[in-house]
Amino acid sequence: MTQEPQPGLGAAGQIEVAVRAAAGGVIDPELRRPLADLGMIDAVAVHDGVASVVVLLTIVGCPAADRIQHDVRTAVLGVPEVHDAKVELGVMTDEQRADMVTRLRDGKPRATTTFTADSLTRVIAVTSGKGGVGKSTVTANLAVALADRGLRVGLIDADVYGFSIPGLMGLVAPDGRIARPTRVGELVLPPVAHGVKVVSIGMFLREGAEGTAISWRGPMLHKTLEQFLTDVFFGDLDVLLVDMPPGTGDVAISVGHLLPHADVLVVTTPQSAAAGVAVRSGQLARQLGQRIIGVVETMSPMDLADGSTFEPFGAGGADAVAAALSTEDETVTRIASIPFSTVLRAHGDEGIPVVIEQQDDPAALAFRALADLVAKRPRGLAGRRLPVSVG
Ligand SMILES: Nc1ncnc2c1ncn2[C@@H]1O[C@H](COP(=O)(O)OP(=O)(O)OP(=O)(O)O)[C@@H](O)[C@H]1O
């Protein structure tokens, strides 16, 4: 980074300014903002070409400490007059942390969601009629494919009873423990997997209770989702995906109320039984003001090497759902068909989405095509204030 000379400073002072700028330009891996903007660069000194920088971490035991120390040292060594650099780590005081949280929230008070109708983040809820049809697999792969295109992507696992996103995204350790968010004051920083910021109810269960069933009632679930939208710091996102629980229960209604401007993807298999219930979840989303952007069929017919087709779940389900959801004013179409893929299933079990692990698999190609389509499609106007005035 080129630094403008500061008037009134001697040569040594100029070097210190350059060192501070270099260190301050390093991006915090969790907060994704420059360290200078976060108030994390404390003392800076340079003597005989040796730079000393004190970086204030947000919390004791910050998981990104080593990476920050390494990145700051590398950045500081990039200043021509510096031939050695020492980076010491300290920890912010409560006051400094509170100041940083306020900056991160852009001055907005607590309990305000950033995902309002006017925000630039596009919210996409992924829903299905019944469980086990491949909805979470679609959500995870779409999220990763969008992140791989350079978009800033967040993923909320709202499938509270059957949360499978941590597993699909590789956030579950071999002993079953799910990655935990980092807490900085009142902020909750979501773990990042394959370039996607992920939050799931499974991350907030008591340690050791990850495998137990959740038996919460509607109001408690609503509160939890509300907290995901207010207390979890996603930073600026281009897309927020929400993995919905199957069906038309309390959570679907809560998400509809909390995110009425969301676009909705309906996932179904080609089987008619799955298709029928998928229509109902799409209809509920529409009643809540959300816009259906398309139907994604998964476990679709798969082309075999001998030129024949394997149809484990029949054919035609998604087209039937799309037709049933279409109205005079709004045509809904099937926007993707993800073929049945054993490779996809195996990578899902390993926590590495097929879309990055085996890019030539037909299912991976179909996910990429879906991501292209979603990224290019203009977002809906539902719930947004239009820039018109009545004079
Ligand atoms: N296209 C596909 N080909 C083969 N297997 C698939 C495909 N899509 C999903 N699966 C497998 O089907 C199973 C269910 O998938 P997934 O968990 O995504 O479903 P879901 O609809 O989200 O279910 P739930 O709501 O119960 O979590 C998983 O084992 C997954 O690997």
List the SSEs and their pairings:
Blueprint: H1 11-24, E1 41-47, E2 50-57, H2 65-77, E3 84-91, H3 94-104, E4 122-128, H4 135-148, E5 153-157, H5 165-168, E6 182-184, E7 187-189, E8 192-193, E9 196-200, H6 218-230, E10 239-243, H7 250-258, E11 263-268, H8 272-287, E12 291-300, E13 302-303, E14 309-310, H9 317-325, E15 334-339, H10 342-350, H11 354-357, H12 362-376
The chain binds adenosine-5'-triphosphate.
Summarize the structure in words.
The protein is α/β, with parallel strands linked by helices. It has two domains: 11-104, 2-Layer Sandwich (GMP Synthetase, Chain A, domain 3); 122-376, P-loop containing nucleotide triphosphate hydrolases (Rossmann fold). The chain is built from twelve helices and 15 strands. It has helices at residues 11-24, 65-77, 94-104, 135-148, 165-168, 218-230, 250-258, 272-287, 317-325, 342-350, 354-357, 362-376, and strands at 41-47, 50-57, 84-91, 122-128, 153-157, 182-184, 187-189, 192-193, 196-200, 239-243, 263-268, 291-300, 302-303, 309-310, 334-339. A hairpin with a 5-residue loop joins strand 13 and strand 14 (309-310). Helix 1 runs antiparallel to helix 2 (65-77). The termini are far apart. The protein binds adenosine-5'-triphosphate. Adenosine-5'-triphosphate (ATP) binds at residues 128, 131-137, 159, 162, 164, 246, 298-299, 338, 340-341, 344-345, 348, 363.
